[in-house]
Amino acid sequence: MSLIKSVRETVKKYNLLEKNDRVVIGVSGGPDSLALLFILYSLRKELNLRLYIAHLDHRIRKDSHKDAKFVKALAGKLKIPFYAMAVNLRRSAGKSSIEELAREERFKFLFRVARGVKAAKIALGHNQDDQAETVLMRLIRGSGLSGLASILPKRKIAKHIVIRPMIQTTRKSINSYLKRKKVNARIDATNRSSLYLRNRIRNNLFPLLIKNYNPNIKEVLANSAQVIASDYDFLEQAARKEFMSLKRAFLIKIQGRSLKGIKFNINRLSRLHPSMQRLILRLAIAKVKGSTRRLAFQHIREIEYLISLRRLNSIVDLPQKVSVLKKKSNLCIYRRQI
């Protein structure tokens, strides 16, 4: 199957694009994002798409400015509006990993561009290989269903819809497509660095698994992610209904400061199935701090231990200034000030 046909099927299956859509395309200059750009460019007249190119220079490599120059020239050739920004991740990484910070900065930038051009959708070039790598990486690190659902074809974040039209295509087919078009992509040298877990999985672990265990391991993992995503979506919908019936807003004073948060009746929460409890806790934390980034399974276990065994007025402090307080009848989740 040709790459364009595969993308068409994915777009139709998940309703990723509609006529007259304004779409911001994240283009790094690498093979995946270039293939996505050319495919959406080929579909622009058929769907009357308004396309915009966004490029973020992370400045992780000394020659990264050449990527921006390359993408800008391509945007000019295709006559697509181009938006770029540079950040210095190494200076601002701090305790966060470069990978995590790069992702956060990339989304901030893409959302900013989308708001500026009034685009509802943001297209990214993730493919089936990326999906498989992400599943395996999260298995190694430890993850629940939400993590194993991995990279979704379509996801709403705040007011934006992030789409991944190539999520069912292989990296091999992408490279073949670019070769036929005689397009030379920019190659990020850090993709070969063994410092990053994803690279070690891609360059070392997958070749071993393909050779000695299952030649179709990438497809198997990607399919598993799709099944898990569907199951998790069903569970999350049920949890959201329960969450809305359980949650109550509150205002409490901690060390003289008035803090807003969410509280649950502990007895009602404890009677739920453990799976439902955990999903509700995740939803509450996401509501309080805006996301579940850096929330690990161990944090949920600490809250469960707080509910069942710790004494009244005990507190569990979570990453990014979120705290959970056990009162006589309620479990209170709030954002601390310091």
Short descriptors:
alpha/beta, Rossmann fold, Uridine Diphospho-n-acetylenolpyruvylglucosamine Reductase, domain 3, six-stranded mixed sheet, 13 helices, 11 strands, 18% strand, globular
Please outline what is shown here.
The chain is α/β, with parallel strands linked by helices and 338 residues long.
Report on this model:
Helix 6 (128-141) packs across helix 9. The strands form two sheets. The protein has a six-stranded mixed beta sheet with strand order 3-2-1-4-6-5, sandwiched between helices. It is built from 13 helices and eleven strands. The chain has two domains: 3-227, Rossmann fold; 247-335, Uridine Diphospho-n-acetylenolpyruvylglucosamine Reductase, domain 3, CATH 3.30.465. It is of the alpha/beta class. The protein has helices spanning 3-14, 31-47, 65-78, 89-92, 98-117, 128-141, 145-148, 171-180, 197-212, 217-246, 266-270, 274-289, 297-308; strands spanning 22-26, 50-57, 82-86, 121-123, 154-157, 160-163, 248-254, 257-265, 315-318, 322-326, 330-335. The longest helix is centred in the C-terminal third of the chain and has 30 residues, at 217-246.
Write the layout of secondary structure elements.
Layout (H helix, E strand, L loop, with lengths): L2 H12 L7 E5 L4 H17 L2 E8 L7 H14 L3 E5 L2 H4 L5 H20 L3 E3 L4 H14 L3 H4 L5 E4 L2 E4 L7 H10 L16 H16 L4 H30 L1 E7 L2 E9 H5 L3 H16 L7 H12 L6 E4 L3 E5 L3 E6 L3
Helix pairs in contact: 2-8, 6-9, 6-10, 10-12
Q: How would you characterize the largest beta sheet?
A: 6 strands, mixed
Tell me the overall shape: globular
Structural class computed from helices and strand pairing = alpha/beta
The CATH architecture of the largest domain would be: 3-Layer(aba) Sandwich
Number of strands: 11
Report Rg.
Answer: 22 Å
Question: Number of helical segments?
Answer: 13
| CATH level-1 class of the largest domain | Alpha Beta
Task: Going across the biggest sheet, name each strand in turn.
Answer: 3-2-1-4-6-5
Low-confidence sequence ranges: none
Order of helices and strands: HEHEHEHHEHHEEHHHEEHHHEEE
Approximate helicity band: 40-55%
Q: Write down the domain tally.
A: 2
Q: What's the CATH topology label of the largest domain?
A: Rossmann fold
Mean pLDDT over the residues: 89
CATH superfamily of the largest domain: HUPs
Beta-strand residue fraction: 15-25%
Distance between the termini: 55 Å
